[in-house]
Amino acid sequence: MNKKDIWIQTVLEACESKKGYQLSVLDISKVSSFADYFVICSVNNEKQGEAVADEIDLRMSQLGVEAKSKEGYTTKRWILMDYGDVIVHIFHKEERGVYKLEQLWADAEDVDIEIYGVENWH
User: Fold this and answer.
1) What are the angstrom distances between the C-alpha of 75 and each of 10, 31, 45, 102, 108?
2) CATH numeric code, 3-114
3) What is the reported pTM?
4) Where are the domains of the chain?
5) What's the pLDDT tens digit per position in 32-78?
6) DSSP characters for 36-74?
């Protein structure tokens, strides 16, 4: 497993551990120059969004990886965590429907997350 796969798996497992749902991974490497992957997760409320983000931050730091930037902690409706090649989006369920990243990035390849041992449950 390469570095990016380890990062993605770590993020997905962190999301799952805090009951994040509608997990998806988009390979944006062929349509973007600023990152290779988006990991997207939905949460039910702001407190859960913060818990998911904190768990991701903890697990990534255990790998020796720190976010280049984190945004959205004030409102906790859309938390963005930039790990360089992997960018994490944690959406409040209402916000995800508004921004529709998967549609916006329709040219990106949808990655089957089951290869990381997690399911895309709703």
Assistant:
1) 25, 29, 11, 22, 28
2) 3.30.460.10
3) 0.94
4) 3-114
5) 999 999 999 999 999 999 999 999 999 999 999 999 999 999 999 99
6) SEEEEEEESSHHHHHHHHHHHHHHHHHTT---SEEE-TT
